[in-house]
Amino acid sequence: MVRKVSILGATGSIGQNTIDLIARAPDSYDVVALTGASNIAQLAKDAIALRADVAVTAHDHLLDELRAALAGSDVQAAAGTAAVTEAASRPADWTMSAIVGAAGLAPGIAALEQGGTLALANKESLVCAGQLVLETARQNNSRILPVDSEHSAIFQALIGEEMSAVERIIITASGGAFRDWPIEDLAHATLDQASSHPNWAMGQRITVDSASMFNKAMEIIETHEFFDVTPDQIEVLVHPQSMIHALVGFNDGALMAHVGPPDMRHAIGFALHHPQRQPLPVERLDLAAIGQFEFRAPDARRWPALRLARETMQYGGMMGAVFNAAKESALDGFIAGQIGFTQMADVVEDTLSHMNDAGGPVHAAMTLDNVLQVDHLARKAAQAVIRKRAG
Ligand code: NAD
Ligand code: MG
Predict the structure, then answer these.
(1) Domains of the chain, with CATH numbers?
(2) For residue 200, what pLDDT is reported?
(3) Which of 149, 247, 281, 364 is disulfide-compatible with 257, CB 3.0–4.6 A?
(4) Quick one: average pLDDT of 288-299?
(5) Ligand 2 (ion): which residues have CB within 5 A?
(6) Contact at 8 Å (CB) between 285 and 276?
(7) pLDDT tens digit string along 90-122?
(8) Contact 10/119 with Cβ under 8 angstroms?
(9) pTM of the predicted protein model
(10) Over 80: is that where the pLDDT of 267 sits?
(11) Distance 100 CA to ligand 1 centre (A)
């Protein structure tokens, strides 16, 4: 059976890994939409090779460049954020949500509204608007399959199990670039140093978020939203090798672990072929050669982001959208050289308390418009904090 598929964020790390899998079996897929942002050459090349119906750049001003790159092919060109969401709403059996940041929320919702399966790499949508995303899936009989490696692992460990028997969920963290640095040195960590991950090849933003543990912080909230477990059932375990991706602990004391090489094509391929398992081009682990697995408790002083995620869940309402927006703004500030590495957590902490004290908007009903409004207000608040700290 040929399936209609779309890839949102096709030019990124997850998008390219998805294309790698799809391109291995071109006769099985009919590609509807590919979306990207500034990498027009890659977007056009893939859209032509996969014979997509439409290629969309999120940037209006790049429409002519995209048109030129697609000249002579049958692929339509479109540009702008509304066009990304329109492309996501075109009927597809399976959509990969792999835009980075809150920008992935509206297109993901549009994909859920047209039905089909949403393979969700964009964890920000669950952090910002978990209830809304899950409710949209329910109302439209669409399905969400997690693509974050930890969440795919949890999902797989839960197959055939009752949620009532789950005691705890343990998500592992590599510890990122600075896991072995003296804590005093973190304040002077540079963007270059934060942008290299010990195990995974990923986009720059999530790589820096791994060094600060903001990625794991987001994943705690993602776990809480997606699997409907309480915050105190979720544990983080530092596992420098990134081979055990998550463990589920049951009421009889058993732990079901998911073990595999650090290669996102596993989680992507699992979501692509679900409910079947199909052969995937990932390395087979030689456990005897690996010899041992290492674990450490996460250090709260080194990684304040973990505490901030728990405070966010305690605040409730739309504070998840505040957390994400503040985190994105702080990351922008660090990338732009306005603030230091450890100040990212300070910015998020100050923005959370400011927005919580302001009340009002964060406790309104969780609609897409309200989430986007809170996102906007939180970015403004975070930028004010950054200016104060930078100046
Ligand atoms: P990336 O930076 O490599 O790619 C991001 C994609 O989003 C690109 O296609 C880019 O063109 C597009 N994009 C960026 N800004 C946009 C905007 N404003 N509007 C529309 N499109 C925009 O990122 P990535 O590492 O592939 O991560 C994508 C998502 O998957 C993120 O939510 C990330 O947290 C999640 N994720 C990634 C990995 C990984 O291994 N890379 C693992 C787990 C989860
Ligand atoms: Mg992950």
Answers:
(1) 3-146 (3.40.50.720), 151-290 (no CATH), 316-390 (1.10.1740.10)
(2) 87
(3) 247
(4) 98
(5) 148-150
(6) no
(7) 999 999 999 999 999 999 999 999 999 999 999
(8) no
(9) 0.98
(10) yes
(11) 3
Question: What are the backbone angles phi and psi of residue 303, rounded to the nearest 5°?
Answer: -130, 75
* β-strands 234-238, 166-173 pairing: parallel
- Tell which one of 46, 62, 100 to mutate to probe ligand 1, the residue whose CB is within 8 A of the most ligand atoms: 100
Token pair, residue 108, equals 């993901």
Residue 391 has pLDDT above 80, yes or no: no
For residue 303, the tally of other CB atoms under 10 A from its CB is 26
Q: Which atom of ligand 1 is nearest to the CA of 206?
A: 34
**The dihedral sign for the CA sequence 56, 60, 65, 71:** positive
HEC string of 9-39 equals CCCCHHHHHHHHHHHCCHHHEEEEEEEECCC
Which ligand 1 atom is at minimum distance from the Cα of 13? 26
Task: Place 359 in a pLDDT band, splitting at 50, 70 and 90.
Answer: confident
Say what the pLDDT of residue 226 is: 98
Strand partners, 165: none
Is it the case that residue 344 has pLDDT exceeding 90?
Answer: yes
| Gap from CA of 166 to ligand 1 centroid (Å) | 31
d(CA 231, CA 55): 40
Instruction: Kindly compute the dihedral angle of the four CA atoms of residues 385, 122, 17, 179, in this order, to the nearest 10 degrees.
Output: 50
In terms of DSSP H, where are the helices of 81-139?
81-89, 105-113, 123-139
The residue whose CB lies within 8 Å of the most ligand 1 atoms, and thus the one to mutate among 6, 14, 263, 327, is: 14
Give the pair of three-digit tokens for residue 102.
């809150």
CA distance linking residue 38 with residue 63, whole number of Å: 10
User: d(Cα 326, Cα 338) in Å, to the nearest integer?
Assistant: 14
Q: How far is CA 69 from CA 34, 44, 76, in A?
A: 14, 6, 11
As a 3-state breakdown, the chain gives helix, strand, coil percent values, each rounded to 5, of 50, 15, 30
Q: Which atom of ligand 1 is nearest to the CA of 149?
A: 43
